[in-house]
Amino acid sequence: xxxxxxxxxFPLLRSVGALGLLAAVACQNRIDSxxxxxxxxxxxxxxxxxxxTVPPTGSSGGGNGNGSTGGAFGQxxxxxxxxxxxxxxxxxxxxxxxxxxSGASNSxxxxxxxxxxxxxxxxxxxxxxxxxxxxxxxxxxxxxxxIFQDPNVPSEDVLIDPQVNxxxxxxxAPLVQDLDAELxxxxxxxxxxxxxxxxxxxxxxxxxxxxxxxxxxxxxFGRRVHREALPEDRIAAYEQLMAAESTFQAGAQAVxxxxxxxxxxLYRRELxxxxxxxxxxxxxxxxxxxxxxxxxxxxxxxxxxxLDAAAQNRLQTTADIDREVNRLIYAPNAKRALxxxxxxxxxxxxxxxxxxxxxxxxxxxxxxxxxxxxxxELFFDTLxxxxxxxxxxxxxxxxxxxxxxxxxxxxGAGSTSFQRVDLTGSKRAPGILGHGAFLTAHALPxxxxxxxxxxxxxxxxxxxxxxxxxxxxxTNLASxxxxxxxxxxxxxxxxxxxxxxxxxxxxxxxxxxxxxxxxGRYRDQENGKPIDATGNLSGMPEGDIPLDxxxxxxxxxxxxxxxxxxxxxxxxxxxxxxxxxxEKQCNHDAIRREAGKQNYSLKGILAGISHAPHFTRxxxxx
Length: 622
Fold this sequence. Notes:
Radius of gyration: 26 Å
Oligomer: single chain
Helix content: 40-55%
Shape: globular
Strand order of the largest sheet: 3-4-11
């Protein structure tokens, strides 16, 4: 067993790491051409023990002030900022019943209206600004698991990821600050000690304490950790650190400790190299593209094949990118990244902790997981079968196991494994909005919530901005015992003059789902009275759309250009980590144009995201 701090070098390393963290990488939100050399982030050196230090970990100097953690993207292109968590129908913690107001939306204006997506797409090629993006906590851990090829990498909570617009993907929000730095240093030592116990052999063919063996290990391990071939100055710095130890194993452990808190691991650089013909334009390097592809499609570091493609200049053309996209979406880790996107998009990621009334149904962890899995499987099937956004909403089949099939009163699933089941002739609404995950996540503990369901259709499916909830407004519902049906309860609540303006556009949308209770189970009566699932979808380009049941709403949404454009907006934000730059509409329209050529298939949207100007190029931040 190796000692963690032989010869006192680890205390030095800890001191150096702390200084590096406080020094900062490069300004995360504003990067000028002088800040970064050809090699990417500058390495630093600190005096100590007569040798240069390892490249320091850096923290960003601060965020851009975007305080939004939820809400919608307006079709005009504005990402909400300054608001609190949305949708307003968050998890209600008691069965007493509230509309679940969890905060303000992020823009003001007439409720339920938005600027519809233009039929005329802009024809421009301007990408967004350069960025340095910190890995999310999940990406950091996934990277270590893939680097060491071992799922048993020690696990600790060392990074915190703010939720913005429903995702933990914002390029500006996550920072490494003082406490994070200390946690990272401790965690790096823990993982290095674990790795030194026989888990580093794949990175070397010899263990002699000589320069050749040291450099081989540094180059091989560093290539996976830094996601690029290490330049000579970095190799030399790490070799000096390694040579200072008495044995090869101790030196390797010191290097692992240093690399796991390096900015080259913790931060994704999307800085590019300056275009000699245009000082304002930067083309991402092959290694930067490799990282962008990998973290977007697998939520982890580039694999060996992708790093090889970067090293061999096989990430230069659109065909090269298409080849890797088509390979990576079938990689073992791709479903993990796709599931994270669809859960964030539909705001169903909170379902595992959603408060529910167990007197009505034992809402087990297994059932919660099964509901999420159903939606994920339909999304995967739609993508891999090259089907369209419309198919995602209208699919007359689903994927269930025995436990979920019983809740839905469906046959055809007789085991714990998930099976495709035809919904023809059943009472289940088609597509993702008919799934238990959507219906249950956006409901009260004991009953349905037209408000939560209506808000999510407006914000997450149509990208409409809703006005903020007035401060100090009492959002508690009257006791359900006073009303024969849930609809009557909401109608009474929404009759209040202060509430009516918003609820006029929200509740009639949510009422279309009233045939599905708090757990997504079908019902045609409530307390002996027939369910009234009529409503309307107001403010649409065609005028107000009359509704009678979920299927009527789904049928309209499946044909809506606003819905297709909204999915593009959310998916591209998830990919890029930003939706705010001067020419963002240019990029958005480029994706829509590409997707439209492919009948708005999910693969077509992916192609649009990876072909759009922002995927491969950047402009100097203004």
